[in-house]
Amino acid sequence: MLEATQRASAEIVFEQSKQWEGQVVNGTYPLRQYVGGSDHSAVFLTEILSENPRKAAIKLIAAHEANADIQLGRLKLAAKLSHPHLLQIFEVGKCQLEDHQLLFVAMEYADETLSQILPQRPLSPQETRDLLTPALDTLAFIHNNGFAHGHLKPANILVAGEQIKLSSDGLCRPGSPASVQSTAYDPPEASNEGVTPAGDVWSLGVTLFEALTQRLPNWTDRLRSEPTPSGKMPEAFAEIAKHCLVRDPRSRWTIAQIGSRLNAPSRSPAISAPSSSPTMKEQPKAKLDTASGNQQKGNNKWLYAIPIAAMVGIILLLAGLPHHGPRQQRRVGENATSSAQAVPHSSARAEAATVTPGTSDAKQVVRQVVPEVPQKSLRTIQGRLKVTVRAHVDGRGSVERAEFASAGPSRYFANLAMQSAREWTFAPTQNARTWLLQFTFTRSGVTVQPRQIG
User: Fold this and answer.
1) Is 284's pLDDT higher than 60?
2) What is the pTM of this model?
3) Does residue 130 belong to any structural domain of this protein?
4) Are residues 255 and 157 located together in one domain of the fold?
5) Beta bridge pairs of residue 62
6) pLDDT tens per residue, range 113-137
7) 287 and 177, same domain (yes or no)
8) Phi/psi of residue 317, each to 5°?
9) Which distant-in-sequence residues (6+ apart) come within 8 Å of 369 by Cβ?
10) Which residues form the domain of 367?
11) Is residue 320 part of a domain?
C-alpha cells in the first residue's frame, strides 16, 4: 500500500514537470530543457555555472519522507566512485520546486543511449565487442567496490563524448530491494534477493541479446524455465548470452568469465580480435533516464542532448556495420564549389566539392573521395558526427600514410573516413606535406573540409 501511495504521489509531482523549465535548483543549476523522465523522476539539461560554463544533466527524483535520507545516502556513496566508463556525478542533494520536496542528481552531460540506436538497427559484432569491453570493465569495478548496478539495460548504456558509459545514479549495495516495477531486464530472483552482481550478469545477457537481434529473449515460463536466446548471433556472443541467462544466479558466469570468453580466440570470424584500425579513444557518453529506466523517443532526442552528436555511434560507437566503399569525387581546382555542400546518398555518384574556392588549398586538391554511406546508417546520426584524419602526403601528391587526429565515437564512420582519406591525391611538390581532412557526417549526407597544416 505504501509503495502504491508513493507511486501515485510521484505521478502527481512529475506529470507537469516540463513546466519547471526556467527554474533554478538550489540557486545553482538552471533547468534549461526538459528531456524526459518517468513517473518518479524528470531529467533536464542544465549547466555548471563557472568561468567556463559546461553542459550537464540534472535528474529530479521524488523524495518520499519514509526513505529520502536512505536514497540520498545511496546517491552520495555512488558519487564517490570514479571510473572512465561510469557517468560522473557532480553533486547530489535535496531541493524544493513549488511545493514539492525532491532529490537532485547533477551529472555528466551525455549524448545518446543504446536504446536510441536499437530501434533503428542492431549492432554489428564488432560494435557489440566495443560495447562489451568497457561495460565489463565498469561492472567489475562496481562489484569490486561493493556495489551492484541494478538497472543495466540499453537506456542506461550511454555515449558521452567519445566514451561508452554506464549510468551511475542507480548504484546500490547488494541485497537492496529491486525496483517496484519489474522489467524484462530484471533477473528472476530480484523480488526475493534484491539487487546483486549476479543480477547484473543476467541483465547484461538480456541487453547483449537485444543489441544483436533488436528483440528480447523468448521467455515463456518465468516461474520455471529460462529464456531462450535464439536467433542469429555469432558463436561467442551466443555462448555468453546463454551463460548469463541461467536461472540459478550461482551458476551464471561471472564478469571475469564473460571477459575471458569475449577475448578468447574465436572460431567465428565475425567476432575475431579487434581489427588493426584504431580503437575508439575511450568511448561514448549518454542520455539521461539513467536509473529510471525510461527510454526516451522522438522529440526527446537524447535523454539529454540538444545537439546530439555522437553515438551513432554508441554504439555505433561501437563499431562496424557492413562496409561500403568510398565514393570518388571529381577533380577539384579553382572552380571548386562550396565546402559545406553535402553528398546525398540518393545520388549514386554525387560530386560535391569540399574545398573553399579561391584558396591555395583548393588549388592543391587533385582528387577527393567522399564516403558513400547507406541511408539507414545516416538515419542513426543525431546532429553532427565529425572525424578528422591527418594525411601525410609525399612529393608526388599521394597519401603516404594517415592516422586519426580525432576518430570520433563511431568506428564505423571513422573507418569510412580513413578509407576515403587514403585515396585523396594532391598536386605534386618538392616537399612532403601534411593535411587535415575533417569529415562531417549528418543525416543528409557527408562533407569534407581539407586544410594543409605542414
Assistant:
1) no
2) 0.59
3) yes
4) yes
5) 102
6) 899 889 989 999 999 999 999 999 9
7) yes
8) -40, -25
9) 326, 327, 328, 329, 420, 421, 423, 424
10) 326-452
11) no
